[in-house]
Amino acid sequence: MSETNRLFSIAGSPRFEVYSFDFGWGKPKKVDVTSIDKTGAFSLSESRNNDGGVEIGLALNKQQMEEFAQVFVQGLESLE
C-alpha cells in the first residue's frame, strides 16, 4: 500500500471512561489499548488524572514517530 493510501486504526474514546472500571481489585492506574497491528494504530482514552484531558497512544515505527513528534510539537507551538 502506498503512503498516500495508508490505513490507520483508531480504538477507544474518552467517553468510555476506562479509568472508572473496577473489577473488584480497584480502579486501574494505567490503561493501554493493544493491537495486533504493529504500526499505524491509535488509541484514545480520558486522562487518568480525571482532569478533562485525553491520553493518546500511538504505534508507529521510529522514523514515523519522530516525524509525528515534530508535527505535533509544531501544532502545539502554533496554539501559543
Automatic annotation (TrEMBL):
Reading the lineage from the top rank, the first entry is Eukaryota
State one molecular function term (GO): acyltransferase activity, transferring groups other than amino-acyl groups
Pfam short name (any one): Transferase
Which keywords has UniProt assigned to this entry?
Acyltransferase, Transferase
Q: Which PANTHER family match?
A: PTHR31625
The protein here is known as: Uncharacterized protein
